[in-house]
Amino acid sequence: MSQRPIMDAGPGINFLxxxxxxxLFGALGALCVPEAVESExxxxxxxxxxxxxxxxxxxxxxxxxxxxxxxDVTDTLAAAVQRISGVPFGQRVRSGxxxxxxxxxxxxxxxxxxxxxxxxxxxxxGGCRAAAAExxxxxxxxxxxxxxxxxxLIHTLTVLERAAGGDHLxxxxxxxxxxxxxRNLDDGLPPLATTNLLNLPxxx
Length: 204
What we know:
mainly alpha, Rossmann fold, three-stranded parallel β-sheet, 10 helices, 5 strands, 10% strand, globular
């Protein structure tokens, strides 16, 4: 079975909170998350009423659509976490801040080092930079003749682009409405006018 895309908490909780899990899976297929991301999604769903629906949706997701990756320490995972965060695995895990995105990139790195071509879904700037850095490291290893895979970074905008023109986003109005609702949950998303979402080929 090919490696599933690995998702960070931000995009996950946003789509699930709006009951848009079918759009998410329709665009990307089956997904996986580290245990730290699952914990973050459930914690935010319980702490902020804007995200309440995410817990209900999460608990209904079958494993064929959402796999939870174990964050139990292994030599390869510990090495990846230390390389990405600059601190030992145990210390990084005890510091919960942004742990989910660190584990997303670490799991992706471990899979890529084993030869997989991994997609990671992250919006957070720090996570994006870490994923990009790991991707460049893998490219250097490939150039040295090492049999490694790759890491490809995608974002919420990528998901929406893939879904555009389909059942869940049949027209510009639907895109405009959903994007507005997503931005109400996540002000880190850029203004719609600065994206290409309303100018996609499917709308022509």
